[in-house]
Specification:
The chain has helices at residues 49-56, 79-89, 105-110, 121-134, 150-162, 180-195, 207-210, and strands spanning 5-18, 21-34, 38-42, 64-69, 72-73, 90-94, 168-172, 200-203, 215-220, 223-229. Helix content is 29%, strand content 28%. The strands form two sheets. The protein has a six-stranded mixed sheet with strand order 6-7-8-3-9-10, with helices on both faces. Strands 2-1-4-5 form a four-stranded antiparallel sheet, covered by helices on one side. Bound molecules: adenosine-5'-diphosphate (ADP) and magnesium ion.
């Protein structure tokens, strides 16, 4: 497998200022994610998981530090430049699915392709059909989200995240709204996508979900306190030291 670096964070700090209060949500994060990795970010509530994912997804910026995404320094970009890269390179999956309720499955998945890509209708259809086949939902193309189970809705949301062929898929508690059976279906889908080469970064507070990943990064109080990779040659052996300040 290639070892191309997709994500490189150096010395990332994030401070939230609210009224008189300062919250240090991320405290000196150094993190490198390579192409093809399936990374789980775990840790207790409030430790900074969602903040980290928002930064990785260019939904927010750090207070300090640098971020290179696929070799580009994105820490200094303006709002519009970040939006362009976000639309092109990042696929998002959220706990609450976030499908648009009055659009069909087909229209929801097509949405990310409808602006800025210059694709014809036929080209879009081909990509949408491919993405729906990847998540095994091709038979529900004309349904509305309300006509699907939670697990099916999350698979559609994953298809929507994948359809633009992003460099990385970011998922924040993707199984948080699902019963254990549907959660397993979604985790097995992520496993399959990882096997097919997708780069995935998933936030979860559930240790059993984290075990699906090839690497577990554990946060505590805004710091990386553990970073453990597992593959067939190095089962359970830590390959990266937790960052030390
Ligand atoms: P997690 O996802 O691990 O539960 P978060 O990243 O949501 O944690 O939050 C990390 C810390 O930052 C928490 O103390 C939280 O209260 C704070 N925080 C998160 N978002 C904001 C915000 N928009 N404004 C102020 N504080 C925030
Ligand atoms: Mg969170």
């Amino acid at each position: 497998m290639s070892t191309k670096t997709i994500i490189a964070l150096q010395g990332i700090k994030k401070i939230f200022y609210t009224q008189e209060l300062e919250t240090l949500a991320l405290n000196d994060i150094h993190l490198q994610i390579n192409q093809g990795e399936f990374v789980a970010i775990s840790g207790p509530s409030g430790c900074g998981k969602s903040t980290l994912l928002s930064l990785l997804g260019l939904l927010d910026t750090g207070t300090e530090g640098s971020y290179h995404l696929a070799g580009t320094d994105v820490s200094e970009l303006n709002h519009n430049e970040r939006a362009v890269i976000r639309n092109r390179d990042i696929g998002f999956v959220f706990q609450a699915f976030n499908l648009i309720s009055d659009l069909t499955v087909y229209e929801n998945v097509e949405l990310p392709l409808t602006y800025g890509r210059g694709l014809s209708k036929a080209q879009r259809r081909e990509k949408v059909e491919h993405a729906l086949a990847q998540v095994d939902m091709a038979h529900r193309i004309n349904h509305l989200p309300s006509q699907l189970s939670g697990g099916q809705q999350q698979r559609i949301a994953i298809a929507r995240a994948l359809v633009g062929e992003p460099k990385i898929l970011l998922a924040d508690e993707p199984t948080g709204n699902l019963d254990s059976k549907n959660a397993n279906i979604v985790l097995e889908l992520l496993d399959k996508l990882h096997t097919e080469g997708a780069t995935i970064c998933m936030v979860t507070h559930d240790p059993r979900s984290a075990e699906h990943a090839s690497r577990q990064v554990v946060l505590f109080d805004g710091k990386v306190i553990d970073d453990i990779s597992r593959d067939t040659t190095l089962a359970g052996v830590p390959v990266t030291e937790a960052s030390s300040a």
